[in-house]
Specification:
The protein has two domains: 194 residues, Ribosomal Protein S5, domain 2, CATH 3.30.230; 175 residues, Alpha-Beta Plaits (2-Layer Sandwich). The chain has eleven helices and twelve strands. A hairpin with a 4-residue loop joins strand 3 and strand 4.
Length: 384
């Protein structure tokens, strides 16, 4: 990617770039659908990223060419308006939110490319937002504050693109540490870097299915979680313990309206037990206990499949293919669900053979091609 963006910049602008920046995608190791319930998440940055090669301009215009889409965009920082090119709106949205936060921005021109799969649940949009912010920081000379930039990326997506997201994706893209997972408390926004178990590889398995009706399904589950929180008399499901869920499940249902409906209870049970699994996963990683971490992966997938009901056939097939391999310590779907990716833990020396075998099994069962890759836990956004 580095060479590709350098060569393309020189070809178009007839000079070397002044800066090259990158921001990674992410895979969530565990902690699914807990972010908007003010819970805990444990993602890591992957070694696939969005790259921008750029140089400053003397005016307040931004010119960007996307190598992957073969499209160009140009806009003035003093007169930002919404357009029809989705990828361009992410860049404008970040510029808009940076200026609202009183950053003085310099114009720039550059080349954009990346290898984060789009629509796979690996946060290509957050990577673009954070890379854009890093580009503006480079030419404008402002200090890099990972958490503040993450909030700006989130607001760009919420306000400019009108997509409701949590802050996890932008946080890990902006602030990850190589070799570590990013343990984030989605209420306080406090985070810690947790080292991954030694000699263990993270394998990302793309089902090549994309999330069709995810928006309506996501909104329904968010509403169900809010209903459950209201029933338990708490601000968010973060504040409900596993024992309260079990107590409610075992109640004698003999008074109309005196209990939570079964669907909302299942959603709540997933969130509450998933939060507990994240905390156990952090403890396991600190103890270099990959076996326990893998078991928690497996438990998470069952909960997402049966209680939160966000898997599909493709996700279940690829997870089952992974779990059937003796070298697999654990596997689960990752991301919002209804398609996209799963993630597995395997010993490093078995990772490539594992990826090949799971890919063959999945293709035989689904008839679909799949992209499976081994990823190191990467660094957050940086100037190269």
């Amino acid at each position: 990617m580095l060479t590709r963006v350098q060569v393309a910049f020189h070809s178009i602008f007839r000079s070397p770039p002044a800066f090259i920046v990158r921001a990674p995608g992410r895979v969530n190791l565990i902690g699914e659908h807990t972010d908007y319930n003010e819970g805990f998440v444990l993602p890591m940055a992957i070694d696939r990223a969005v790259w921008i090669a750029l140089r400053p301009r003397t005016d307040r215009r931004v010119l960007v060419h996307s190598l992957d889409l073969n499209l160009s965009a140009a806009f003035d920082l003093d007169s930002l308006t919404r357009g029809k090119n989705r990828w361009e709106e992410y860049i404008k949205g970040v510029a808009h939110e940076l200026q609202l936060a009183h950053y003085h921005l310099t114009g720039w021109e550059g080349i954009l490319t990346g290898d984060v799969p789009r629509g796979a649940g690996l946060s290509s949009s957050a990577a673009l937002e954070v890379a854009t912010a890093r580009a503006f920081a480079s030419v404008s000379g402002f200090e890099w504050d990972a958490l503040r930039i993450a909030r700006i990326g989130q607001r760009a997506e919420n306000n400019w693109l009108e997509v409701q997201t949590g802050i996890m994706d932008q946080s890990v893209s902006a602030g990850a540490k190589a070799g570590h997972a990013f343990f984030l408390d989605c209420r306080s926004l406090e985070y810690q870097h947790i080292p991954l178990p030694k000699d263990i590889a993270v394998v990302v398995m793309d089902t090549s299915t994309r999330r069709g009706l995810v928006d309506s399904a996501y909104n329904a589950r968010r509403s169900q979680c809010e209903r459950a929180a209201k029933f338990f008399g708490v601000k968010a499901l973060r504040d409900v313990g596993v024992e309260k869920i079990e107590e409610e499940k075992n109640k004698t249902k003999n008074v109309k309206g005196a209990w939570l409906d079964d669907v909302a209870l299942k959603r709540a049970r997933h969130v509450v037990t998933e939060n507990a699994r994240v905390l156990k996963a952090v403890e396991a990683m600190r103890l270099n206990d990959a076996v326990t971490l893998g078991r928690l992966f497996n438990e998470s997938h069952v909960s997402l499949r049966d209680d939160f009901e966000v898997t599909n056939d493709a996700l279940n097939w690829i997870v089952e293919a992974a779990q059937a391999r003796s070298e697999c310590l654990g596997a689960r779907m990752t991301g919002a669900g209804f398609g996209g990716c799963a993630v597995a833990l395997v010993p490093k020396d078995s990772a490539e053979a594992f990826a090949k075998a799971v890919g063959a099994e999945y293709r035989a069962r689904s008839g679909k091609e799949t992209a499976i890759f081994v990823s190191e836990a990467g660094e957050g956004a940086s100037v190269v």
